[in-house]
Amino acid sequence: MDPAPNGEEPTSWDELCNINLIPSELFLKFRKEIQGLRVGVNLEFYNAPINDFQTKLVLKPLSPERRWKFAYEPLHQDVRLLSKKIPVTKFLNLQVGVGHNFKMNATGWKWKLTTCLGGDGVSRIRNKTTLGLVPGLDFRFGWRADYVLPEATGALGTNEPLFNLNSGRLQASLDRVEAIVTHSSDRL
């Protein structure tokens, strides 16, 4: 989303609008709902910036007011207890967690402020969209769009042009695709 090297506007539509539909993260999630809890196994494949694979075991309450989630990564020997995302403002969330790494015998805590808006000098929207195909099978798509809105400027009696049009830019990508298989059980 940087301007052209010579400071002028890009000339082709390919430079103005770039949409990448190759996801860098693929997740396959298996979930089982038992007595108010969701037990899950996540298989996570990462394509960029490096190829990586992770597995996670996840346990969290099903209630809408759930306040925590427990995650264990057997390959890294990490265990974490995370709070749910706590709304600080309409677009800003806080999440805190405590964890232990058995390989390094280290315990620590983390916090994270997140938003669906923002970027480095560029406007950004990040979002997740869920598509339920059949009961028990959902697809979730994580996407983002970085954009610069079109802008018209002008001046009279200065060294600036009388009329200048910046056509704006859009760079969008499909970052994550998740297939979620859920088995509900009212018995047990």
Automatic annotation (TrEMBL):
Pfam families: DUF7781. This is OBP3-responsive protein 4 isoform 5. InterPro entries: DUF7781. Residues 12-183 form the DUF7781 domain. It comes from the Eukaryota. It comes from Hibiscus syriacus (Rose of Sharon). PANTHER family: OBP3-RESPONSIVE PROTEIN 4 (ORG4) (PTHR35710:SF1).
